[in-house]
Structure formats: C-alpha cells, structure tokens
Amino acid sequence: GYVEETIELGDIDTWQFDGDAGDIISMQITDEDLAGLAPLVRIYTPSGAFLQSTYDHNVARFDRLELPESGSYTVVMQDANISGSSGHHQTGDYRIYFVKPPVNEHGSLINGGYVEETIELGDIDTWQFDGDAGDIISIQITDEDLAGLAPLVRIYTPSGAFLQSTYAHGVARFNRLELPESGNYTVVVQDADISGSGGHHQTGTYRIYYVKPPVSEHGALVSDGYVEQVTDFGDLDTWHFDAANGDTISIEIFDIDLGPFAPFGQLYDPDGLFLTRFIDHDIALLNEYPLLKTGTYTLVVQDADISGSSSYEQTGPYRIGFNLEPGEPEPVPPSASIYTPGSVYRFETITLDGSGSTDPDAAPLPLTYDWTIVSLPVGSELDPGALDDVTSDSATIVPDVSGEYVFSLTVDDGLFTDIAEVTVTVMNRAPVAIAGEDREMATGGVVSLDGSDSYDSEGDTLTYSWSFVDVPAGSSADIDEPAAVLTSFEADIQGVYVVALVVNDGEANSTADTVTITVIDENVAPVALSSVPLEALVGDTVMLYGTDSYDPDNGPSPLSYEWYFGSIPVDSGLTNADIADSTTDTASFVPDVDGNFTVWLTVSDGELSNSISATTYIGALPVCSLNAEAGANVTVDLGDVVSLDGSNSSFTDACTDVAFSWQFVSVPGGSVLDNDDIANRNTSEASFMPDTDGAFVLRLMLESGETVSADNVTISVEANESPIAIAGEDQTQEVQSTITLDGSASYDPDNGPSPLTYLWQVVSQPSGSNVALSTPTAAVSGFFAMLPGDYVLSLTVSDSVASDIDEIVISIEAEEEPLRCDVNGDNVVDNTDIMAIFASRYSPATGPDDPADFNGDGVINVLDARGCVLQCTYTNCAVQQPQ
After folding, report:
1. What is the pLDDT of residue 870?
2. For the segment 596-609, what is each residue's pLDDT rounded down to a tens digit?
3. Helix or strand holding residue 276 (H, E)
4. Residue 388 scores a pLDDT above 80
5. CA torsion, ordered 780, 783, 785, 789, to nearest 10 deg
6. Whole-angstrom Cα distance, residue 637 to residue 215?
7. CA distance 387 to 340
8. Which residues contact 353 (CB under 8 A, 6 or more apart)?
9. For residues 518 and 516, what is the distance between their CA atoms, to the nearest angstrom?
10. Can you give the pLDDT at residue 88?
C-alpha cells in the first residue's frame, strides 16, 4: 500500500517501518503533483546508522534492498537539489509505496484465468498464489493499453526470498518456472525503466495470466474432432484430455486466420510435470506422442515468439484437432480397504470388513485376502493367529484387554498386491458399585456394609473403597476396613449416615454408589425384599420369594409375611386366596390369563412393617425367563474346598442352550486366584480352594441368547486358629514308679476344622533308659520310670491344619539308703544312737540295712559302737550342734 503527505518549504518528513535482518524491501516515492518536487529519501537502521539514499524527479526508488538488522527503520523524506542550485525549496504532495514480501494487496491469481488492475504513478502492486515445491507455473503480464507501461514483475518465495524477475514492453513472462518450496508466493508488479531514464513513472492497466497444471480453462479436447478458441493479447489458454498409460496422441493447433499468430503448445502430465512443446507458423503439430501415465493431461496454448522479439503478443482464432489411439490397457493394482468401528468394548467381537476392496480391471485373477494382526496391546494373551476367517473378505476377533489393536489386510490380484491397516481402540467398561439398600438401624448398633453385589460386566476382579459422605454432627464413626467388600462401622449417635462405595476393576473406577443409614433410638422397621420372575406363561407356577427380607434390630417379634395382589388383569379371576403360602417367606400363584400381575409383600416385626411390590408379565406364548441363584452366603475355614451351588437357578422351557458360568468378582488381598481356578466353572455346581482368608465374591451368570441373569454370592473364609497343647505340670517321682501323662487340658479355639489329635513323644531320657509310652496317640498316656534322672516328653496336638507342641519334665529321684548308725532315725548320729547300739550288743542284726550293724557282720557288738562313734554328726557325739 502507500502513505501520502505534503512537503512544505524546507520540510523534512520522517516515517518508520519494521523489519528483520535478511528481509527484502522495495520502496517508490512519487511527486504526485509533477510540479518540481524531487523526492530525496534516506533510510536509517534501527541503531540510527545511515543505510542508503535515493532521489529522482517524479519517482525515487529503492529496489530489493536487503535489511542488515532487525528492528524499526527510519525513512527521511525531503526535496532534493537536483538542479544544483542548493535550493531544496520545492514543495508538493508525495506518496510512499512500500513492499516487504510476503504481502498481498490485491488477492490471489486465478489458475487458468487472469486478474486485472491499474498501475498508478510509482505504484507497486502485490498479488499471491499458492504452490508446492516442484510445481511448474507460467505467468504472462500484459500492458492492456499499449500506452508505454512496461511490466516489471518479481516473484518472492513464501519465506520472502527473491526468486526471479522479468520485464518487457507489451508482455512480460515467466515460462515453466519450477517452485522451490511450498506456501504462498508473492508477485510484485510495477513499471519498468526500460529506456534507462530512471523514470519508472508509466501508468496503465495490466492483466496477469496464470497457469499451474493440472488446469483446464476451456474444457476437454474432442478425440477425432476439434475445438476452437480465440487467444487474447498475452493470453494463456488451457485444455485437458484423459488418457491411459500406453495411449498415443496426435495434436494439431491451427491458426485459422493464417495471420501473425504462431501457435505454441505445451503438454503437461497428470502430475503437472512438463512433457514437451511444439511451435510453428500457422500449424503446430505433435504427432503420435506416447503417454506413460494414466490420468488427466493439460495442454497450454499461447502465441509463440518465433521472430525473437520476445513480444508473445499476437492474437487470433485457432483450432485444435485431437486424436487418441488407445494402447494396451495397463494392469491396474487393486486397492485394499478396511471398514470397522473405530472403537469397541472388551470381549465385543471386532468385525474387520474388507469387502470394499477393489480391483479396477478385475484381472488377472480374482482378489484374494490375507488378514494379519500387526500389534496387540500390552497384556493381551491372544495368539497372533487368533483372527477367524483370515482368507475371506471379512475377519473377526474377540479382544481380551483394552488398548489399541492394529490389523492389516493384503489383497492380491495375482499380479499386484495392496495393503491397508486399521487401528481399533478397545475400551474398558467401568464396573458397577452397589452399596446396598438404604435402611434404619438402632443407636449403638454395628452397621454392616456389603458391596458384594457390585460387579464388572467384563468379569474383572474388583477392589473396594468405602468412605463417609455424611455423618451426624458429633459422630466419631469410622469404617473398620474401607478396602474390604464386607465391612462395618458403629453408629455411635442418632442421625443420618451416608456411605459411598467406589469399586475399581484394575483400569477404571465406578461411579460412586451410596447407601443411607438412618439411626434411630427406637424400634427399627423391617425391610421387605421380594423376587419374582419377570415373565411367565399362563398356567405356570409363579414363585414369590421374600427370603431376603430382614429386620435390622431383630425385634420385638420375629418377622411375619403377607403376600397379596396389588393389581391383576381385568379378565383374571384370581383373588388373594389363590396365593399359596401367602403368610410365609416363599409363596406362589398360578396365573389364569395374559397380562401384568403386581404382587405386594408386607413384612412386620410386630410393631412396624414395610412393603414392596413386584410385577411379572404373563404371556400366552413361550418366553425365555432366567433366574440365577448363586446360593446363600457362607463362612468356611481356610483349607476347606468351597462348593458353589447354582442348582436352584431356574429358567423357562423357552430358554435354549442355557449357559452357566462362574467368575470371581473380587478376591481378598494376597489371593492369586483367577477364574481358571474355579473347577467346573461352566456348570451349575462348581468349586474352588481358597488360598487365603477373607471375602471371596463370585458371580453366577446364566445366558440364553441375549437373555441374561446374574447373582452374586459371598464366601467368607476364616483363617484356622492354631490349637493349644497343654502337657501338664512338670513332675517329680520316685524311681521305679508309673508316670501318668495327661494332655486333656489341650484345646482348639475354633474347634476345627477337625477334632484334635494327640501325639506323645520322648524328647530325652536318662542314659540306659528305654521308655515305652502307653497309648502315645491318646490325650492320656504314661510310662514306667526304671532309672532315676530327668525324662523330657513332648505333646503335639493338631486340628489337621495347624498344630502346637508343649513339653513336660519328669524328674525321677533315686531311693535314699538309711543313714548308717542313725538308730532312732532322726537323721543325726549322736550319743543317743551310740548308747542304743551298746544296749543291743550281742543281738543279731535285723537285716542287711540295720543301721546299728556298722560292719555288716549280722551281729550288733562293741565294734559296731566304736565304728559309729566315728560317724557322729556333731563333735563328741553331742545330740545337737554346739553353740
């Protein structure tokens, strides 16, 4: 664009523009009044250094000036002293035209057409066109008035670098210019100083004709016929034709008037690449030219500069004759195409549809298909050959984990192949948390939380997270085990407790489910829960189950039950009396007509009651109705085999191919069990062996076609408590006595899993002893101690899973010999004993152990008394120890 201002006497005007180092600018400054003002212009760098100056009458110019640094440049404008009179006193209006590519003042060039504009005094016009690296373009710029304007045209790349320029009187041209980069190119148009006078002041109207093949301005050539058109001054006409590889063409361009117009044809292939040209006076001919590509070709027609004057400005009507000789058709490769949904959920079948693949020439053989797995997500256990129907036009696979699955299809027509790939994202369904039914509780009671009805539709095992959403003000309630499927908290004060449960399947959290516990300081109403089939047939027995109903505070009376009809079809003749066992937890009725039967159950604890309704649809035609019953929750000991009993599940006769399957919903921390550890998991009765204590939640699924029923069961596994062995207190006994061992005080805290067994064993015994235990596997045992010393025995008790050991020490003492000379047996030999021996002298000994027979000769005499004096306990045979 331009700016405009007035120079007054002696005036010095300043302007600025921004630029970066390396930018290229052009600037023209005009005397708009043509009244003597000679523009003198200087440019200063952002640092204030003088860069360059120019001056001239009428139009002063800077042409393709490269900027040395980045920043704001200063332009200084004043009158120049061209005459040498040093007057610098001319005044007048001036304009500054400024261009810094890339820039676009007037818009885009038209491929296959032209744009038109007017150059004013000193004007610099800018246009733009889009191109890719390697494109070939042709441009011709015409002086439409033929009044002296000499078009000077420059092209700048998308990065602003100067590419090429041209100028001429009449028609300036770029012919088959190859573009070096992709982007928006800038075309700059101004008057050229062809005469060398430095004027650059011619004005006038110009056109820019622009061609970038492939393009067709005038339409298709006619095979074995002709088309006609008139070329304008500097015009570039474009035509097209379709051909195949191997075809041969002949083209004749004829100057109808046989005037100065010299036909000039240029041929481009379907990719826009230049092939050949043909020129002549009157008739330009391209004869039997072979084509090597299939597609749409472009023919450009213009006037040729045969005279060498570079005018390219002759006009006139012309005719194009065209002939195409088809060659042998080139074999066309097939094209592989895959259609499949971009995403599915885990365990949904992925269907890969390659039926959209094509072979345009259907030769040389019918298409064959080959499907392969390119890649599977981490963790997938699918085999690379898991695809079904890999040689048909469609294949299927069932994904086992979430993530990206990449598949490829190769199609083959016997000569060529083509491959297509597709990526399918497999998503994980979030699990469903079920925190239980809202209920009332009594103050101070323990509130049980049961998340065992939560499930994951894809069978992933779950982890649990319980948390309080709200508790009454002042409550200090705390959830015992927030990560357990079965947990509890103590409702310490009255009010409303809201607890949230979130379950996770290893990839995603569920939406939180909440349960509201209302704690009151009075009798709590019971909760009615009923189960009825969704559908049944006329004449079938419809079972009504209220066995899940419960009373939170178990009182004041046992639950009572009452079943009754809420609504029945108009034509039904049933009454409440037709409900069998209507006052028990399990009732039934036999429907007599089609329609909806709504049945109510009311349960009462003697003071308060609660009711619930359920509706079953009775049809005349067989319908499939499934009712999965996983059995009652049970508690077992670790080490027991858990039997899973779904035999109470039911289904109607209309259900076919009913499939049973058991799967783990959750396992306790530390367990490594998975679904493969469930024996007979695809039958109604299965089993598994727990590997740790805690709660195992399993889900029984019944499926018949699209009809599904599921039920959960919780198996609470308790760790076995070790028995306690009690062998009894240590004992001291005499030699050669019978010892009794009594372990009957041993006990098992949990009385299982099996009755206690006992085993008595000898740990150690005196040297030479050989103890034989009586009944060593009974609670009471014994042995005969032949020798003195310590006997150590152990008792092992076992409940078949755990055992305990206790030891007992039996100390056996040797029999003491009587103290020799101690006649009175007071354990002291003194004068009393000596006198007794004297009194008994000449008497026979009572036996070998007679204490008076010191020398053991069988007779009591003086020698025995003398010997015993030497054995006195105290000095001088005193009767007591001297003080």
Report:
1. 87
2. 999 999 999 998 99
3. strand 274-279
4. yes
5. -60
6. 86
7. 14
8. 338, 339, 340, 393, 394
9. 6
10. 58
Kindly report, residue by residue over 322-372, the tens digit of the pLDDT. Answer: 887 877 777 889 999 999 999 999 989 999 999 999 999 888 899 999 999
pLDDT at 459: 87
Between vectors from CA 358 to CA 357 and to CA 364, what angle results, nearest 5°?
A: 125
Contact 249, 323 (CB under 8 A): yes
The residues pairing with 136 across neighbouring beta strands, listed in sequence order, are 178
- For the chain, which domains are there? 2-99 (2.60.120.380), 113-211 (2.60.120.380), 225-325 (2.60.120.380), 343-427 (2.60.40.10), 439-520 (2.60.40.10), 535-619 (2.60.40.10), 626-718 (2.60.40.10), 731-813 (2.60.40.10), 831-877 (no CATH)
What radius of gyration do the chain's Cα atoms show? 57
CA separation for the pair 186, 155 (Å, rounded): 6
The span from the CA of 602 to the CA of 54, in Å, is: 107
Structure tokens at 28: 């023209």
Do strands 535-537 and 162-167 pair parallel, antiparallel, or not at all (unpaired)?
Answer: unpaired
84 contacts: CB under 8 Å, gap ≥ 6: none
Q: How far apart are CA 357 and CA 372, in angstroms?
A: 16
Span 189-227, pLDDT tens digits: 988 764 545 455 678 888 999 999 999 999 999 888 899
Assess contact for 66 and 8: CB atoms under 8 A: no
53, 90 in Cβ contact below 8 A?
no
- pTM score above 0.90: no
pLDDT at 495 over 60: yes
Alpha-carbon torsion 686, 688, 693, 698, what sign? negative
The CA distance from 730 to 741, in Å, is 10
- Residues 545-566 have a mean pLDDT of 90
Confidence at residue 198, expressed as pLDDT on a 0 to 100 scale = 47
Residues shown for the chain: 883
Question: Residue 26 in contact with residue 48, Cβ under 8 Å?
Answer: no
Beta 171-178 vs 136-143: how paired, if at all?
Answer: antiparallel
| Count of Cβ atoms closer than 10 Å to residue 223 Cβ | 15
CB 426 within 8 A of CB 403: yes
Q: Are 234 and 170 in contact (CB under 8 A)?
A: yes
* Burial category of 335 from C-beta neighbours within 10 Å (exposed 0-12, middle 13-18, buried 19 and up): middle
Plot region of 581 (φ>0 → left; ψ -120 to 50 → alpha; else → beta): left
